[in-house]
Design a protein that fits this description.
207 residues, 7 strands
């Protein structure tokens, strides 16, 4: 299964700073999940040293979605934007023991990126930008564990919504998210995810 993003309650807006009560250490969100599969794995907070692997998996995800030419973010960007004094995003990592590493030597096999937002209807919200698990580790509960951890962090911060987007052709992921109690905001409420970027954004800023 391809683990990926999801739609925000499009009444939400991005928030740069996370809520103070969710400033958790790596050890505070570590989860070991041997009961989910025959191979053990853990979920922990991402740190600066993970940025190389996060950048790698972002590209893997983009290649799956056939949009790799759209990826502009570099490892350095991730380091600056996720681990500065006022981070723009937070992340969690799925990791396996050395004995289960990939043939390329990777032990970091999945990740989720998220940030805090605000809904003018229901208050605090969390937006999950990415949810990804390497192909050979899918179907073993890793993606579900990552999403569950984001939900736990959302509740710890007093959030009322977990928002994300998913590609309309990615039926396995759509079915998975629906099975977890999520619903399609576009189909149910008619919202569409809009974007302004590049020259259009610069022009808009000059009005």
């Amino acid at each position: 299964m391809q683990w990926r993003r999801m739609p925000a309650a499009f009444k939400s807006q991005r928030r740069r700073r996370s809520w103070k009560e969710t400033q958790l250490s790596s050890s505070a969100i570590t989860t070991s999940s041997p009961h989910l599969l025959s191979m053990d794995f853990s979920i922990r907070a991402a740190n600066l040293d993970d940025c190389k692997d996060i950048a790698r998996m972002i590209m893997e995800l983009a290649e799956y979605e056939k949009v790799s030419d759209h990826v502009k973010v570099t490892q350095k960007d991730l380091e600056q934007d996720g681990f500065s004094k006022n981070p723009f995003f937070h992340g969690i990592i799925a990791e396996v023991p050395e004995q289960h590493k990939t043939k390329e030597g990777y032990t970091k096999i999945g990740y989720a990126l998220y940030f805090y937002a605000y809904s003018s209807w229901s208050g605090r919200a969390i937006y999950m930008e990415d949810l990804y698990v390497m192909p050979e580790f899918r179907g073993k509960g890793v993606g579900k564990a990552l999403m569950s951890k984001v939900a736990q962090l959302a509740l710890a911060a007093g959030c009322h919504q977990l928002n994300f987007t998913v590609l309309n052709w990615n039926k396995p992921s759509v079915d998975f998210y629906l099975s977890q109690g999520s619903f399609d905001v576009t189909a149910t409420m008619g919202y569409h995810c809009m974007r302004c970027e590049g020259e259009a954004l610069k022009h808009l800023a000059q009005l």
